[in-house]
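Handover notes (outgoing to incoming on-call)

Open items:
1. Deferrochelatase: sequence verified, structure written out, both below. Nothing else pending on this one.
2. Nothing else urgent.
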Amino acid sequence: MSDGPITPSGPASAGLSRRRLFGAVGAGAVLAGAGAVVGRSTAPSGSGDADVVAFRGEHQAGIVTPAQDRMHFVAFDVTTRDRNELIALLKTWTDMSQRMTAGLEATENGATGDGAYHPPSDTGEALDLAASRLTLTIGFGPSLFDDRFGLADSKPAALEDLPHFPADNLDPARCGGDIAIQACADDPQVAVHAIRNLARVAFGTASVRWSQLGFGRTSSTSTTQATPRNLFGFKDGTNNLKAEDPDALTESVWVADTDDQPWLTGGTYLVARRIRMLIEQWDRAVLNEQEAVIGRDKREGAPLGKKAEFDELDLESKGPDGPFIPVTAHVRLASEQHLGGIRILRRGYNFTDGSDGLGHLDAGLFFIAFCRNPLEQFVPMQLELARSDALNEYIQHVGSAVFACPPGLRDGEYWGQRLFES
Ligand SMILES: C=CC1=C(C)c2cc3[nH]c(cc4nc(cc5[nH]c(cc1n2)c(C)c5CCC(=O)O)C(CCC(=O)O)=C4C)c(C)c3C=C
Ligand SMILES: [Fe+2]
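Deferrochelatase C-alpha cells:
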C-alpha cells in the first residue's frame, strides 16, 4: 500500500488487514509480505491492493476516484458545544477511516480484541471482506460555522444553504447537517460498516441527522468506466467531467488559492439532492416522449439527431419539426453551451427505499455534484432546470444539502486540521 502510516499518531505496522487476519488465523499461515493474501479459502475475488484507494493525497478520495458501485452517505449534527471534543472526534474519525479504507478493522483487533466485557470497537460485519475500493470523503456544512466552535471567520463565502428552487418539496429531515461523510465502495456491506462505525464512535459528540443508501452509480467519473444507467433507463454520466481532464477539474471542481478561505484550497464543494423519480408516471410515458424529455436516445445515449453516445451535443441542429433537441430537453438546459460554460462533476447514485405506503416506489437519484463554487455553478444550473426542464413532470426534489470538502490530507494530518488550526 502506498498509504503511509496507519494512524496519524502510530506506526505503519499497526495490524493485519481484515482479510490477512482471517487468512493467518484460519490456516495458521505466516504472512509472506506486503500485499500478500495468504492461506485464506474465503478470499473475496478481486481482493488485493488493487482494491485499496489511497486515503491521503492532494485531494480527498471519492471525488474523481472512478465511481464505485455503492454508497452510504450520512449527515451529522454536532451535539457537543466543546471545540476540543469535536477536534478529538475528527482525529478519531481520521484514524478509523484510514484503517477502514486500507481494509483493516476500524480499530486494531477491535472486533474481538477489546475483552469479553466491552462492546467491540469494530462492529465486525466487514471482517472477511476486502477493502472494496472504499473511500470516505468529509465535508463541512454552513451550520458548523455558527457561533459554537469559533469558526465564523473561517466560513467560505460560497458555503451558503441552497436557495429554494421552484417546485422544491424539501423534507427538513432530509436537509442540511454540520458534517457529511460520503462512503463509496464496491461492496455495500463495506460502505455501511464504515458509516456505522464512524457514527457509533461519535456518540455524545455528533449524531446522525439523515443518511442515504445508494446502489448503482449514475455517473462515470473516468473514461475507463462504461456509462451506467439511471432508474429511467437512460445512460447517465456521458457528458460528465472526467478524471482524465485535469484542466477541466482545475477550472470547475478544485477551489483555487485565490478563491476563498486558505484552508479550502485544493478542496471543493459537495451538493447533495435527494430527487424522487416518479417511476410509475415515467413508465407510462411513450418512448418518444422519454427521449424528448432527456434529449438523448435511450439505447445508445446519443444526442437526438446524432448516432453515437459521445457525439457532440449540437443544440443548433434542426429537423423538419424544429430542433432535434427540444427547447425543454434536460441535456439542453444543463449543457455548458446553454449555461455559458458552467460545468459540474456529477457523482450520484440510484436509490430505492421500498414503497411509499401508497403503492409507489420510493426511488430516485441521490444526486451528488462537486463544484468549485456552488453559487456560481450548481445554483444557476438548477434554477434553469427547475424553471424549464421537461423532466420536472417526472421528478421531485425532496432533500438538499451543501458541504465544503477540504483538500486531501498530508501525512500526519487529521480531517479538518487546516480549518481548526489556521
Ligand atoms: C443541477 C444539475 C442536475 C440535476 C439536478 C440533474 C438531475 C437529473 N439528471 C437526470 C438524467 C440525465 N442527466 C443527463 C445529463 C446532465 N445532467 C446534468 C445536471 C443535472 N441533472 C448535466 C450537467 C448533464 C450534462 C449535460 C450536457 O452537457 O450534456 C443525462 C444525459 C447523459 C449525460 O450526459 O450524463 C441524463 C440521462 C435525471 C434522471 C435527473 C433527476 C432525477
Ligand atoms: Fe441530469
